[in-house]
Amino acid sequence: MRLTLSILMIVASIAGFAVFIVPHYNQISAIKTQEADYNTILANARTLEEERNSLVTKYNAFDQNQLDQLSTMLPSSPENVKLLLELDAVASQYGMVLQNVKINDPNSSSVAGTAVPVLPGQPAANPSVGTLTIDFSVAGSYDSFTSFIKTIERSLRVIDIKKVTFSALDAKSQTYQYTVSIQTYWLK
Q1: pLDDT digits (tens, 9 = 90+) for 90-105
Q2: Which fold has domain 75-108+126-187?
Q3: Segment 55-90, tens digit of pLDDT
Q4: Which terminus in the chain has less CB density within 10 A, N or C?
Q5: Angle, in degrees to the nearest 10, between helices 142-153 and 80-93
Q6: CA distance linking residue 133 with residue 106, whole number of Å
Q7: Count of beta carbons in the 10 Å neighbourhood of residue 139
Q8: Which ranges of the chain have pLDDT less than 50?
Q9: Is the CB of residue 187 less than 8 Å from the CB of residue 130?
Q10: Could you tell me which residues are beta bridge partners of residue 178?
Q11: Nearest CA-CA partner of 85 in 106, 101, 67, 68
Q12: Is residue 158 within 8 Å of residue 74, measured between CB atoms?
């Protein structure tokens, strides 16, 4: 009887181990694996936070005037109205007035998914930089017009003069009608 009771206790212990202990052990193993994954994710998050703090420190080290100049050079939106006002102010310095202003945004007329071919000699389009083409005309003397163009060239805003055409308003006067096409850029 004692032997039977001992064997029965051993079998009950083995059955209890198999029924209760093994599933809990498997759960603990899964939780330890999950803990290791979370620790890896936490270490990556700490690394990213240190990198972010480093970049914020570098950004804050820039002079605010330089950041403003950079924003003027390549604004975060087209700012076409502001550009037109600046062009009109420059033109008025030389006794000219902007006329026949047309704004063409090639980014708004393009169809999504359509590839635009790159011609030889042209840089490839940068998807993070938008372009804005503005056509306008001014009337004035040749000297006024060249001074106007030189002032635009010295502007902080990146402006490419794409095309200039001119015609004489009057055969006797030295006043010409200039049609100008410029292209400017902005960050998307």
Answers
A1: 999 999 999 999 988 7
A2: Alpha-Beta Plaits (3.30.70)
A3: 999 888 888 888 787 777 778 778 888 889 999 999
A4: N
A5: 140
A6: 8
A7: 18
A8: 109-118
A9: yes
A10: 138, 166
A11: 101
A12: yes
